Amino acid sequence: MSLAGATALISIALAAAPKPVLSVEYAAPQGCPDAAAFRAKVAARLGYEPAGERVTHAARVMVAPGGSGLTATLELEGGSRAFDAAAGDCEGLISSVALALAIALDSEAYVAPRKPPAAVPAAVPEVEAPPPAPVEEPGRPIHLGLSVAARAALGHLPAAAFGPALEGRLRWGAFSAALELEGAFAAPASALGGRVLTSQLRGGGQACGHIAFVGLCGRLTVGALRVEGQGFENARVGWSPVATVGPYALVVWQPVAGLLLQASAGLDVVLVRNSIEVSDTRVWTASRVAGTVGVAVGWAPL
Fold first, then answer.
1. What is the mean pLDDT of the chain?
2. pLDDT value at residue 248
3. 221 Cβ contact list (under 8 Å, min separation 6)
4. 137 falls within a domain
C-alpha cells in the first residue's frame, strides 16, 4: 500500500469516529460568564458544538469564592480538578476551565465511548490559570449631601434660642467638608420695665473625619447679632458681629438610598463677646462658651 493510500484510510477513520456529546451542570456567582457562555468557550476550543441526542460525557462545573479569590471545580467522569484565580478575574478562570474540558474531550474524540462512560474517569489535564488582569484601584467617589435642620442654641442669646439651618456637605471617603447657614431667635427678655428682642444669623464651615456613622468636626462660624429694645426711652435696633469656633459631632443614618437623617451637637467658644445695655445698665453679656444641638433631614443625590 502506498503512503498516499494509508493517509487516506487514516483520514476516513478519523472522520467516521463519533464526536463527544457533552452535558454540563454549571453554577457560578453573579459577575461570571453564564452556562451558555461556558459552552460557547468549550465549542470554540473544540472547533465544533459537542451536542447531540446521545450524551457520551457528563461534566460538572462549580465556581465559588475561596480564600481571597475564586475557586472553580471541574468534575468529569469521576475525576476532578480545581482552578484558582483572583476575585476580579472570573472571565479568565472560566476560560481556563473551558480549555481543560475541551482538551479532555478532544483526547477522546476519535475513540468510541466506554460502556458505561463513567467506568473509567477521564483525566483532567493540568492547565495553569492565566495570570489575573491588573485591577485598577477605583478612585474615592465624592458624595454631595443637602439637609434642612432645626437647631437649639444655648448661651448665644439672653434666652434659649431656636431656629432653622441649611447645610451642604461634600464627602469623599472618611472625610467631609460642609457649609452652613443658621438662624436663631430667642424669646423676649424682660429688663428694667421693657423688653429686649434678640436674634442671630450665622454662616460657617466644617471639616470632619468620619468613622462608620459618626463624624467628628472642627467648626467656625461668623455672623451678626440683632438686638431690639421695646418699652425703653430712646429704644432702637442694634447690630453686632459674632464669631465662634469649636468642636462639632455628627451622627448620620441613611435608612434608604438618597435619604439622610442627622443629629448634631457642638460647643462654641465665643470669640466676640457681645453685651446688652439699657440706660447705661448692662443687662446681659454673652457666655464664653455656648452650645448648639440639632436634628436634620437631608438628601444625598450622588
1. 82
2. 95
3. 180, 182, 202, 203, 204, 242, 243, 244, 245, 268
4. no
